[in-house]
Design a protein that fits this description.
Blueprint lengths: L6 H59 L4 H30 L1
Length: 100
């Protein structure tokens, strides 16, 4: 049994140990999780920008191959949409295969 003079010291040690434990077990993993989430969001943003630029390039490439005219522009947009949907479908299909 501790003496009456030792109780404040034991209580302060308990508080200090609790703070250190909380820092090690909650704050440090939360910081690491934040870094990983930031990298994931950044990578997703870069890939989304790349996909938009690729779709844009497909659109202008198809538009250059087709003759000029109002309906040819519509056809170029339709072809671009089909290519983009097919690419997205392939990505989703591959992600589903990898997760199984």
């Amino acid at each position: 049994m501790p003496n009456a003079q030792e109780i404040p010291q034991i209580a302060s040690e308990l508080v200090e140990m609790s703070r250190e434990y909380l820092r090690q077990e909650t704050l440090e993993p939360a910081k690491q999780l934040g870094v990983q989430a930031g990298m994931g969001i950044g990578g997703a943003l870069i890939m989304a920008i790349g996909a938009v630029c690729l779709a844009w390039a497909v659109y202008y490439g198809v538009q250059l191959l087709l003759p000029e005219g109002e309906w040819w522009v519509v056809l170029a947009r339709g072809i671009t949409t089909i290519v983009a949907v097919a690419a997205a479908g392939i990505v989703v299909w591959r992600l589903q295969i990898d997760s199984q």
